[in-house]
Task: structure prediction
Amino acid sequence: MQFSKAVVKYRTTILIVACLLMIPSILGMIGTRINYDMLDYLPSDMDTVIGQDELLKDFGKGAFSLIVVEDMPAKDVAELCSKIESIDHVETVLWYSSLADVSIPMELLPSEVYDEFNTDHSTMMAVFFDSATSEDITMDAIREIRSVCGKQCFVSGMSALVTDLKDLCEAEEPIYVGLAVLFACIAMIIFLDGWLVPFVFLASIGMMILLNLGTNFFFGEISYITKALSAVLQLAVTMDYSIFLWHSYNEQKQIYDDSKEAMSIAIHKTFTSVIGSSITTVAGFAALCFMTFTLGRDLGIVMAKGVIFGVIGCVTVLPSLILAFDKPLQKTKHKSLIPDMTNFSKFITKKFPVIFIIFVILIAPALYGYSKTNNEVYYDMGQCLPQDMEYVIANSKLSEEFNIASTHMVLVNADLPSSSVRNMIDEMETVDGVKYVLGLESVLGSRVPVDVLPDDIKDILESDRWELLMINSEYDVASDLVNEQVDSLNKILKKYDDGGMLIGEAPCMKDMIETTDHDFKVVNTVSIIAIFIIIALVEKSLSLPFILISVIELAIFINLGIPHYIGQSLPFIAPICISTIQLGATVDYAILTTTRYKSERIAGGDKHSSVTTALAASMPSIIVSGMGLFAATFGVALYSDIDIISSMCMLMARGAVVSMLCVIFILPALLMLCDKIICKTTVGMKHIVKINSEV
Result:
């Protein structure tokens, strides 16, 4: 109570401090770098990651792009190469002319080299940068290359992807927040009992969102997924806490004439319930930190922090705002549009055997769809972009003109004899889907010794420690075919050089597939165990955690099973994140109902009346909360052109509704069916069994 009284007493100071904190928060948000490269989140001890670092350290080559030039004379292409080479942070431009040095007779160069870089209508060049894939300077260089090249040129590669992704995100993100606020506001106006209340809620939550985004500055950078989703998610998830306080305050106003005293007691009561509610949500986000693919940790920490800020804002900033605007808030109150739910609750409890049968029937198709969806995800981030983006068009041109779908790079020991390297190249070229292996040995053939090459030519593909080979593949990144190809190439490479490394987008994606497949199982297990323990402690029961989690897990299975039945492929990160977010954010609905059911049973009610009363009392809060989460995410899901953002928001929106329906219909049936077990395994309820047996 001392804390509550202090908040009421210093409410003006709290608002002034909160407003002042917005200044460093906005500066921190602007100063936080956004990472658009998913491959950056792979564990640092993987060969693919080590190889990328070695390539940058030894060759000064980091990012890599293939450029297709259409209908341009060779002389103009040579001039274009020179222009591109002069762009800041372009380390090397590799084209046919780069290899056809004057000291080597043209007729001695293998015809395959010419064919590799030219078709009837197009020519291709490889561009290496002296900076990493998703560095800002690399993206600036990509934009300048596009500007210099004009409409006849098409730039592919991961750096082109992250450049387009960044530009699209920056254009869409303000609209995400606007849509989330608009739809959440509409939902609150419909389901709450005041016209002005939603705007006060949004002011308080908005301050906490800015504070959360501003404190990300201390991490240095966050992923674009975290940035795009964190504001929307924080708004959706922490809206409940504001509703709790508002309802509690209005209840206390019926008892106390003094608004300050009513608010003091409301803060005290709300703080206890909000802490209990937020723990499961924080646990759900914290479970993401157990992913070895560190994007999960990035999203998990930021969102867990956002929930904590939401709780702080609910018991400090929001009470201060409500007291400041108390008169207009009271004048603009209206009757809630949610009707009395008693009759509906009686119907549900009466029909519980039928509902339980439906529950059992739903399990098999939900589980089947869920398991299939997890196997039908895609990993190629190019698929998350609209088809008219420059990167997507460039990839199509590369595939159509040169039959190249992906490019790998090999780092092989520079001391390896040329004959061994030639043999290795020959073996690699026999692997299915390998179009060509480009290296010093393949360029020169067996007739020209490497020693005759000038140093500036050798330096392109060789350093003191490594020789660089490029492998062009006909197989798409993240496909089963390319993953098998990578395995075969690695096997050949290790036979000749045990310390050699196969790197590039496809090998990195293969690592990401294996890493996230393991992460999915770990995160699911951790989140379920953590929330099981929390429910067991909150409800003081051994049976209730099984019942509550089974209800929400069914909702998750239904939500994640639907994409399979409608033929939708999800981005790989979506099922991992959604399973934990939905569990952590919506299990509160089940806890709310169950807690009321327990108190009714302990007070002497029979199971039928206890479940009916609990459902009738909790249903309005569940509907407001579920529809709030739905509203905040659904608009973004419909609007976003970035499939990974759209898919995750649609899953969250649908998950909120499915969880809401499962708790309203299925949980009461399970409580009725398992009443005896619950009473026997729950602290404070064992006497109910004895009373019933005596009766």
In short: The beta strands are 33-35, 64-70, 90-94, 122-129, 153-155, 221-223, 406-413, 434-438, 466-473, 501-504. Confidence is low (pLDDT under 50) at residues 102-107. The longest helix spans residues 505-539.
